[in-house]
Amino acid sequence: MRKTNLVSIKFFIFIAFASGVHIGCVNTEGTLKIKGKVLDENTKTGIPWKNIIVQGLVNSNNILEPIEAGQFSTDSSGCFTYSLRKIKDAYDYNFCFIGNSEYSVTINKMTLFDLKRNAKYLFFPLSKLVDLTIKINRKSRTPVCDTFRLIWESNGVYGLSLYPYKIYNYGRTNNSFGLTSGRDLMWIGGNVNSTINTKVFADKRTELSWELYRNGKKKEFIDTITCKRDFANIVHFTY
């Protein structure tokens, strides 16, 4: 058995913050006390201990530059109270919710006007992630070798960028696996037997696109599913 585990740090740490958000000496204009709650968009229950980074967006040479305005976490009930730094000349703010195995990285943008108007009643609904298992099996004996590609997206977000995935290849050595780009997977060979474990948005439309290249021709297949909470969400493709 060959196991491939591709995990990117971007799913658990907010990328922009780690790669250049200004956190040093910045111009501020006082503070704004904010109160609110982070909740599951379907169940409406609070999400505890959710880490949040807030950025003020300042125009610099026609480019919006993110400057840190604060960091905080929700409490055990998903609520928060925080004194946010008001960044000078920032008229928009990003609320960046750190991703984990339950909820993906999410960024909500608010204008300063809306932020002030709703400062004591901020509510941020997040979409929950659920497990998805994709099973691929090649039963054809001819031709000896062909190419199979898989792309999936959930609620319009490409699967490979939504959450880390694990691939288990059970085929013999004449089956090869390669990542062709940032948005699809590819198998080349005659003995494909693989399982992919990943996560997608719960109760959202997930679309899987399969492409088979055989004997110089391409065939396309599309599956549309809705993955439910607390279910074994499994998709099979045999070719």
Number of helices: 3
Please tell me how large the radius of gyration is: 22 Å
- Could you state the order of secondary-structure elements as H and E? EHEEEEEEHEEEEHEEEEEEE
Anisotropy-based shape: elongated
Point out poorly predicted stretches.
1-20
Count every beta strand, where a strand is a DSSP E run of 2 or more residues. 18
Protein structure class: mainly beta
Whole-number mean pLDDT: 86
Helix proportion range: under 10%
Distance between the termini: 21 Å
* Biggest beta sheet attributes: 6 strands, antiparallel
Strand content: over 45%
What's the structural blueprint in terms of helices and strands?
Elements: E1 2-6, H1 15-18, E2 28-40, E3 51-60, E4 63-73, E5 79-87, E6 90-97, E7 106-111, H2 112-117, E8 122-126, E9 129-137, E10 146-154, E11 157-158, H3 159-162, E12 165-169, E13 176-179, E14 185-189, E15 193-201, E16 205-214, E17 217-226, E18 234-238
Parallel strand pairs: 2-8, 9-18
Antiparallel strand pairs: 1-12, 2-5, 3-4, 3-6, 6-7, 9-15, 10-11, 10-14, 10-16, 12-15, 13-14, 16-17
